[in-house]
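Kindly inspect this one:
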Amino acid sequence: MPLNEGPRQSGERRLSVNPFYGPANPVGDMAEAPPTHRLPDQPIAPATAHQLVRDELMLDGNARLNLATFVTTWMEPEAGVLMAECRDKNMIDKDEYPRTAELERRCVAMLADLWHAPDPAAAVGCSTTGSSEACMLAGMALKRRWTRRNADRYPGARPNLVMGVNVQVCWEKFCNFWEVEARLVPMEGERFHLDPQAAAELCDENTIGVVGILGSTFDGSYEPVAALCAALDAVQERTGLDIPVHVDGASGAMVAPFLDEDLVWDFRLPRVASINTSGHKYGLVYPGVGWALWRDAEALPEELVFRVNYLGGDMPTFALNFSRPGAQVVAQYYTFLRLGRDGYRAVQQAARDVATGMAGRIEALGDFRLLTRGDELPVFAFTTAPDVTAYDVFDVSRRLRESGWLVPAYTFPANREDLSVLRVVCRNGFSADLAELLTQDLERLLPELRRQQRPLARDKQVATGFHH
């Protein structure tokens, strides 16, 4: 969650109430204008409160036109009804809501089977609020396993975690919060994610694990998890160091099993100890739900699992959060049940078709160079062609926003800070028709952009946000 500051002005603004919002008499029943940054002194009618909040929310962007976010923005009405029926159920209270807990267990079993756990019945896992929490849990398990193996040296020795510079910010948070050194493999040339050999060379006796990303948020590309495991196999053969791999499959772990079945990245690789995914990304569920799975009980140290006597039941739990609604877990089970393997395959293939088709049309415009084509994650990144000097990607993002499209522009990290790109995330609900409309709007803007004397975006740090 971002940190928010209170109002900086000494004078307090008040919300404006339309007289017609009153229950009956627009004058006599008119409520006092409520303050914005402190609790009102008196209640107001529910219809009035609803309308005041709704009026402000109209200024938010249209989620369906948000090509920055990976998060699901559309579900079937039936899923919405189920979520409404379960929003008052506390997921942590498994004794009170045993069927909700059972649906969670079934989802874990389905994912263990989908990701080729050696024995799906022996795999352990849990739901989370999203991939960020799941990554934190996986990182904690890696560190605890390392500390047990190195009890004679820790806490004197400082543990480290090896990953590409393109990791999602939650991994930087993990290293900061849990006092782990982050060892980052930089980008080089046209390689925009982790290099297996470079990652292996950063490993030593203090490495708790290596993170491989199945679907980089920067450009949608898969990292070569099998090659990474092979490089670490060579490290073990040479040094005796047995370094586990965690696969951050926030997006790709719900795409590759259906569209890239021959790609080996999951528990089929013995070195893969744990995998996470976001149910609320390509798992096709509204935010926020994620999943963390370990190949077996040995991969998740027992001392990290709390057994709580809560409301009359003995409950094992592994989570950073305690109370949270069961609605998203129920929605995940609904989606698994509703689509099955063939349904997920059809949905993800449709998203990939939209991405590859749109990438091709944008490339054909002549003003842009593709970095990726949407043929792994249904995501592609592109930048301006070398001969385009009148405008840059930040100008394109700003102008598209005028038409309601939210397309992020951002600069890559080390060693490619010179490269600024636009990225398009194609999700279920972003149809071929919407993609055609976006491409038409972009094409319509190009004559004006080409007439500029120079790029207009002055502050590239605030020109647009980079959203995961």
